[in-house]
């Protein structure tokens, strides 16, 4: 019988793509290991292990020999970050700095023994790297960064430059530790978000309140949330009214007034009122938990630039090793030059060629940007999406629920015979099964007037033209005026009244049977307060805007003129929206509610859902505006541009320093300890530059 299990590990010291590649190469050589998923930014490892072929202990010993001890995690468990000195890179830093300090002290006390002291210090400090390099070579990765540093340090000792060898190890250790520090900063930012959910909740049972662990909450249970307390679970308010600070989830800084029936999120802060909340999701699946999970997955996804650099580094390191050997050997062999100076330059070239900073340049920036976006209520699914956002030049937007508030109101009922109340009653009944904002408006208007809705059956959507159903024995349709005119015809008087209302920005729905028109209903949905400012912000960014709507052309044109859109496309069915997205100059983004616009969202270079924390917004789109604020569209584009500008600076720093030190080393102006700065110094600069993105905040759009 096979004992196969899915395991989740936290892997210490796995902070960069090179480390992850070494771990992946080792695991793939173990029998019984499959479905390996590595995320170096989160230091996580998921795999399936057949323990009849390889035991857990063997697997963990293998990782330990590579210098990456692993700790088994339970699903949903968030491990505390270890102290810096308890990590593999922290211990390497302490060892190398300590060895250098002792060597310097010994040289000061007994100068004739300086060479021996520095040689011993260099070999002691480089030993952990040599051991990891050997382990990686035995597992199919002979050209790791540890190999380059080990060869350079041992070579320095052999040619009598032991003091520089110790400096090389110490500087390399500083760079490695800083690399781990950067990854830890990004992880702590997301873990801090997860920690916003309280540990306990006040459960209501039988009229009594008792404290229970928040992790034990299940859908259907009722909670009491006192004023000033954090909401312990996603839920719906059943009684009470209060202002809630949703900023941990949506990034919206202003409190939101909520009443019975409104949705609340785990981690939100209740303002002044006591609330009774019904739990809708278990703790492990609340909105914050899903955001954390999705951000962790996003940080594992590679942007195209990162994939390019990753492929480049696979053959780059062996070439650097070959270049170092040729630099050391060819001049003495071909020209009779002295061996020692060229051996020295060859060793320096190995250090200059270390690809750490270059490999780190993209993921460090992407992880920081994704984390900063999540804290601002901007969820980005991957680094590839972030890179695509930076290049967007056209944004297509749905009208109802995206550019407008999504809460249309029935403003007028036009009768072609039956009473107005009868028209509203029958139209609302036809729309019983629909969740479209217009359908909700019709049902809401009927409810306000106290109308009892008859049962509807055989409901059928008409592909962007309306909906039909069997009500009280007759086939009724609620459709667009254009479709109604094509099927049953509209008399001149009704058509004129419809045209007048459409020109004033109303949306009209016609109620009719297969033979005749019964009446029409006028609805109006006001633009979002921030819509005009958002479109103006997009124009300042050099991004064009297009409205895609199934609404009538006159109402769409009125809304487009009011908001200042560059282009309006109306009376569209879902397939029409898909066609227009394909025709737009690439790259284009589509902004919608994540439900009715699914084909267009999927077709666009980037699909952006205006979701307010809903399942659709979190699970389907490339990016989501968790606060439901349209201004987040421009913020997403600015975040993408900030990330890619950061990446470009990082790559320039990494390659620029290498180029400078390559020239100065070959000309004899700089030595080994300066050569290591070509990578360690670049790593420091790249890391600090990437960490700047953790402080990114959206700019308020101005009209």
Brief summary:
This protein has 703 residues and is of the alpha+beta class.
Structural write-up:
The chain is of the alpha+beta class and 703 residues long. The model has no long low-confidence stretch (mean pLDDT 84). Helix 5 packs antiparallel against helix 6, helix 6 runs parallel beside helix 25 and helix 9 packs antiparallel against helix 11. The protein has a 7-stranded mixed β-sheet with strand order 14-26-25-24-15-22-23, sandwiched between helices. It has a 6-stranded antiparallel β-sheet with strand order 6-5-7-13-8-11, with no helix packed on it. It has a 6-stranded antiparallel β-sheet with strand order 16-21-20-19-18-17. 50% of the residues lie in helices and 18% in strands. Among the domains are: 60 residues, Alpha-Beta Plaits; 83 residues, Distorted Sandwich (Calcium-transporting ATPase, cytoplasmic transduction domain A), CATH 2.70.150; 116 residues, 3-Layer(aba) Sandwich (Calcium-transporting ATPase, cytoplasmic domain N), CATH 3.40.1110.10. The chain starts with a strand and ends in a 12-residue tail after the last helix.
């Amino acid at each position: 019988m096979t004992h196969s299990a899915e395991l989740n590990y936290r892997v210490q010291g796995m902070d960069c793509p090179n480390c992850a590649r070494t771990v992946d190469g080792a695991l793939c050589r173990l029998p019984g290991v499959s479905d390996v998923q590595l995320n170096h930014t989160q230091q996580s490892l998921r795999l399936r292990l057949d323990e009849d072929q390889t035991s857990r202990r063997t697997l963990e010993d293998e990782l330990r020999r590579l210098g990456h001890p692993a700790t088994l995690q339970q699903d949903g468990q968030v491990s505390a970050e270890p102290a810096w000195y308890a990590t593999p890179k922290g211990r390497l830093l302490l060892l190398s700095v300590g060895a250098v300090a002792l060597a310097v002290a010994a040289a000061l006390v007994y100068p004739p023994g300086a060479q021996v002291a520095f040689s011993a210090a260099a070999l002691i400090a480089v030993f952990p790297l040599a051991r990891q390099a050997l382990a990686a070579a035995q597992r199919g990765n002979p050209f790791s960064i540890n190999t380059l540093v080990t060869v350079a340090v041992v070579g320095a000792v052999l040619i009598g430059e032991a003091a520089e060898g110790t400096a090389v190890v110490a500087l390399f250790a500083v760079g490695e530790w800083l690399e781990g520090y950067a990854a830890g900063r990004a992880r702590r930012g997301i873990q801090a978000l997860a920690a916003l959910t309280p540990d306990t909740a006040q459960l209501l049972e039988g009229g009594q309140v008792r404290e229970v662990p928040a992790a034990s909450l299940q859908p259907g249970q009722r909670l009491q949330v006192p004023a000033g307390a954090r909401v312990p679970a996603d839920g719906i308010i059943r009684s009470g009214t209060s202002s809630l600070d949703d900023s941990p989830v949506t990034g919206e800084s202003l409190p939101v007034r909520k009443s019975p029936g409104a949705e609340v999120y785990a981690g939100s802060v209740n303002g002044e009122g006591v609330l009774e909340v019904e739990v809708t999701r278990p703790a492990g699946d609340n909105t914050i938990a899903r955001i954390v999970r999705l951000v962790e997955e996003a940080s594992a996804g590679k942007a195209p630039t990162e994939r390019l650099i990753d492929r480049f580094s696979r053959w780059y390191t062996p070439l650097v090793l070959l270049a170092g050997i040729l630099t050391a050997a060819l001049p003495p062999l071909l020209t009779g030059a002295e061996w020692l100076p060229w051996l020295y330059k060859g060793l320096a070239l190995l250090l200059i060629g270390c690809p750490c900073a270059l490999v780190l340049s993209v993921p460090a920036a992407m992880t920081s940007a994704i984390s900063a976006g999540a804290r601002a209520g901007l969820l980005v699914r991957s680094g590839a999406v972030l890179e695509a956002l930076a290049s967007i030049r056209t944004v297509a937007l749905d009208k109802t629920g995206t550019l407008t508030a999504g809460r249309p109101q029935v403003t007028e009922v036009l009768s072609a015979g039956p009473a107005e109340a009868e028209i509203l009653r029958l139209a609302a009944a036809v729309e019983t099964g629909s969740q479209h904002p217009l359908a909700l408006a019709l049902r809401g208007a009927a409810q306000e007037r106290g109308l009892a809705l008859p049962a509807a059956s055989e409901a059928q959507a008409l592909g962007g033209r309306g909906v039909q159903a069997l009500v009280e024995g007759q086939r009724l349709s609620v459709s667009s005026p254009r479709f109604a005119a094509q099927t049953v015809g509209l008399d001149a008087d009704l058509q004129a009244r419809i045209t007048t209302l459409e020109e004033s920005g109303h949306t009209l729905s016609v109620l009719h049977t297969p033979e005749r028109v019964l009446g029409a209903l006028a609805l109006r949905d006001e633009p979002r307060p921030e819509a005009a400012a958002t479109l103006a912000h997009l124009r300042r960014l050099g991004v064009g805007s297009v409205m895609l709507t199934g609404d009538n052309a006159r109402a769409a044109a009125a809304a487009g003129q009011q908001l200042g859109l560059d282009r309006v496309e109306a009376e569209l069915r879902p397939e029409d929206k898909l066609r227009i997205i394909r025709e737009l100059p690439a790259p284009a983004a589509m902004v919608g509610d994540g439900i009715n616009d699914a084909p267009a969202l999927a077709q666009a270079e980037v699909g952006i859902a205006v979701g307010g924390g809903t399942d659709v917004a979190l699970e389907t789109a490339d990016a989501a505006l968790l606060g439901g604020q349209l201004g987040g569209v421009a913020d997403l584009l600015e975040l993408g541009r900030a990330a890619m500008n950061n990446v470009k600076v990082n790559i320039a720093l990494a390659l620029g320093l290498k180029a400078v030190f390559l020239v100065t080393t070959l000309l004899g102006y700089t030595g080994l300890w300066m050569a290591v700065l070509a990578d360690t110094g670049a790593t420091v600069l790249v890391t600090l530059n990437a960490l700047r993105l953790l402080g990114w905040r959206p700019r308020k759009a101005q009209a």
